[in-house]
Amino acid sequence: MSTMQKQAVLSGARQAGVSLIELMIALVISSLITLGLIQIFGASTSTSRMTEGLSRVQESGRFASQFMQRELRMVGYMGCGSDAGRSIQESFVNHLATFPGNVVPDGNAYRFQRPIEAFTAGAMTVPTELTSITNIVDGSDVLILRVFDEESTPVLNISKATNTLTVALGNTSASFLPASGSTVLFAMQNCRSADVFAGEFNGTQVVVGGLTAPNVYADPSVTSCGSAPCPWDFRISNAFLNSTPIVGDEVLNAEIHRAEYYAFFVRTNADGFPSLWMLRFERGTTDLMAAPEELVQGVENMQLRFGVDTSADPSGDGAVDEYRTAEGVVAGATDDLILDANWRRVLSVHIGMLIRSPERAGVTGSRTYELMGVTLPATTDGAIRETYETTVALRNRQFNS
After folding, report:
1. pTM for this prediction
2. pLDDT in tens, 255-274
3. Where are the domains of the chain?
4. Which residue has the higher pLDDT, 284 or 102?
5. 3-state secondary structure the chain
């Protein structure tokens, strides 16, 4: 074979390709590998979404439950006395706005003689301070708390002539005092009496007044001072200070707190995603309502049941006899004073919340959830949902002497 022939043979060998059968086999193998990788990726993504969704639900449920527990445990707190005890002793005076005799008064936000109450959105008339808030979920409960803040500072001097209270500033506990010139709600208490009033902090003293006339007192449940209006220092005169011993060298000092209002409710945003929201007084400048704050995303519904003392004893026997809805607590109440008394019978609160994940997490089909006996609408959005329930004892009513 000549050299040219050998080169031609070698050139032809180099030009030889893959046969059709070999190509088809290679395509099948690569397709199987690709399909397997896609399935592994899809399964991994689905598992990741499920794990992430479940983690978010558990995190939101745990935080929401703990947050609500902490706030509820403050119900009835009035320093070294509880609201129920002060009501029996007639040692609490609310100097704020007058309260009409209707069931849901216009001055509802300031009714500190009722530290806890609730409403079912869409089924009960909510107070006026909540009527401007849109997208509150119908059928979900609204919880309202009016409490003394746990932070306090001693009162050093009371001047009835100038309506001023000099307070201790040289400690970290005075950090809760507002900016100078701000009108907010204050509560002053000792073991004998408690007063709630509007005041303006001027940097060294609390000047009583500003929100309403400081000598107006319109709650007819306390009439020991004679006829209304009682003077603003009617009960405050019992607030013994450092220089006034009670027994021997013992002194009973008055302290000043912030008086706080909280409303908790479930609300949806413009995209229809639900969250737990809170409404409270403005903290920085004035005592008007602040804008609602979003607390926990994914809370879809909240149901409340109230442990009520139904004993025949006018002051109760301190034991929960049955759990009622908000409608059950207020049933039969014909005026505000009866409503106050009914809510003072509440000794514990059972909270139930339905929590959902922010995104789809692979849940298929239609699902229906029941929360504390209430059947909620069926869902088909693929999100993970879990129910969380906890019971909180109002310890200031059960154990405070």
Report:
1. 0.80
2. 889 889 999 999 998 888 99
3. 55-398
4. 284
5. CCHHHHHHHHHHHHCCCCCHHHHHHHHHHHHHHHHHHHHHHHHHHHHHHHHHHHHHHHHHHHHHHHHHHHHHCCCCEECCEEHHHHHHHCCEEECCCCCCCCCCCCCHHHCCCCCEEEEEECCECCCHHHCCCCCECCCCEEEEEEEEEEEEEEEEEEECCCCEEEECCCCHHHHHCCCCCCEEEEEEECCCCEEEEEEEECCCEEEECCCCCCCCCCCCCCCCCCCCCCCCCCCHHHCCCCCCECCCCCECCCEEEEEEEEEEEEEECCCCCEEEEEEEECCCCCCCECCCEEEEECEEEEEEEEEECCCCCCCCCCCCCEEECHHHHHCCCCCHHHHHHHHHCEEEEEEEEEEECCCCCCCCCCECCEECCEECCCECCCCCEEEEEEEEECHHHHCCC
